[in-house]
Amino acid sequence: MRVLVTGASGQLGRHVVAQLLERGYAVKALIMPGEKLSDELKSECYEIVEGNLIEPEVAENAVKDVEAVIHTANLVSPLPGMSDCQFFANNVLSTYNIARACGKRAEKIKRLVHVSSSAVYPNDSHIIATCYNPVDELHPKRPVGTYAISKLIGEEIVTSVGRETKLRFSIVRPSGICSGDAILHRWSVKFVCAILRIGQQHPESALFMPNGRELWRELESEAPNDALCAIYDSEGRPWLQQPVDVRDVAHGCICALESDAAIGEAFNISAPRAIPFDEAARIISEVTGKMVVKRRVPVRWVFDLDNTKAKAMIGYRPKFDIEQMVKSAIESGSQSSCPICDQT
Question: What is this structure's pTM?
Fold first, then answer.
């Protein structure tokens, strides 16, 4: 089977390409003009094409000779010089054009796998408190922000095209994708302070303090930014988060491609389990030597995503727990920033 992967040079796309090749698929890789695939992947792909999916003809040419599409292409934040409107239009138009192109060949396209995001709920309670935890696929959709809105509209586009053309599609919703050394930064004092700061900016968040208390300032004054943070609420319950390794997300995309049970369905794609901050801090400290700061606050952040449906219906089996993600991060030696920490 020939499979088109959009965004093939991106964080997720290149791992999807690699796993498809390992499974014997012929891969057609769509990349933006000027971008490159690694030499290893380049030599294995049967075709590499350049183009911007905001142009309808690019999408139509890309799908004309394939039997399936995994659509990973999107922006998570505006590029330098790009307006918020352009950022929004890029994500929505690229999804619209690839879905319409697939719809025109619905009899030949065996599956369109659309990569959305858990931001459609959202499940990060520093923006808006969740209705319940863990967040499953039935949770109300209340997107906040340009990216989240664009992803929900993308899902509606794919669903509408499927309804109109009988295109066989499935949707996957990853949560907190990590690659390189990104996992090491998600348990630090800096990360926790950023979460608390953002939460205080959103009155509907689970972290908002009605009395105006700025919890992050207290933590900042007591601990270095790069220290690890074992943080608990006032009842002693640790904070939780469930970042997912990019390799598990690629595996989830292929599960959605290969399983007939995936047709017309949406699936949460997340790590094997939610990870307590104190556990992650201990594991990372053991391999990096960084100090661990223990802290209690009157609020609790829970960032989780229930993947029971994906496990039961399409055979999703995430492999990368916190120990393995940390090991991979240390071995990779790559440097990455934390988008949450960079927010003000």
Answer: 0.94
